């Protein structure tokens, strides 16, 4: 979960030695494992003073990383333990989620560009939704509905999440996590397939969104439909962020967007191929017969 580099002098040479903290493991347990099993000589055979010095250093570094990666406590607990608790109190292993650095990137993209309207396809356990809704909260965006209110008849809230399986396959765990974080009132949930929900939104709210996060069905044709309608919904200079962009089907849609549509790829600093960010340059004004192979 965390990798902390600790400076040691080894054979007269200053080196950085990694200490790994796994999901669900406390900092103290990780340091104990490091000093007893992995690096007894570096820890002076588990000398108490040396161990406490390492523990203090690692705790400071981890707390700094936590402050950077997790804008709320619900996210921290979920992503550090890789476990979630549903409304019935059952513990479930966390999967199908963006990584902490990816979620924090989306959070920062929204805040740094002062976005007011966002949308995502695919909610699942609600990790990306928590990052997005927290960004709206931290910018002071409010709604007139009571906190925690779950009525989704309105799509005028700051964030819209589309997930046809939220209350079935996902047992409403995403909504529950939003409620725990006091962010549910900022999110309108549409429990329909995106190929039904997005055209309806585009009829009434074209050009009104700052960002669309596409993380739904990753088949090529489904992803293409998600992109097509997101292009209609996003305003000029707005953004589309693709998750799982390393998959060939998603790559193909991105290639289409860059070769045939008025979008450009921007650097997001994540240093991976999973998340790709595109920015809209202008509305679609192609000739009726325009086509570039992609």
Which tags fit this structure?
single chain, 294 residues, alpha/beta, Rossmann fold, 2 domains, 7-stranded mixed β-sheet, two-stranded antiparallel ribbon, 9 helices, 39% helix
Describe this structure in words.
- This protein has 9 helices and 11 strands.
- The chain has 294 residues and is α/β, with parallel strands linked by helices.
- It folds into 2 domains: 2-69, no CATH class; 100-280, Vaccinia Virus protein VP39 (Rossmann fold, 3-Layer(aba) Sandwich).
- Strands 7-6-5-8-9-11-10 form a 7-stranded mixed sheet, sandwiched between helices.
- Helix 6 (173-180) links the parallel strand 6 and strand 7.
- Helix 1 (27-38) crosses helix 2 (48-69), helix 4 packs parallel to helix 5 (127-138) and helix 8 (220-233) crosses helix 9 (248-260).
- The longest helix is centred in the first third of the chain and has 22 residues, at 48-69.
- What is the CATH superfamily classification of the largest domain? Vaccinia Virus protein VP39
Morphology call: elongated
| Number of E-state strands | 11
Distance between the amino and carboxyl termini: 38 Å
CATH top level of the largest domain is Alpha Beta
- The average pLDDT is 92
Helix content: 25-40%
Q: What percent strand?
A: 15-25%
Query: How large is the count of helical segments?
Result: 9
CATH architecture of the largest domain: 3-Layer(aba) Sandwich
Number of domains: 2
Written as H for each helix and E for each strand, in order along the chain, the element string is: EEHHHEEHEHEHEHEHEHEE
Q: In the CATH scheme, what's the topology name of the largest domain?
A: Rossmann fold
What is the rounded Rg? 22 Å
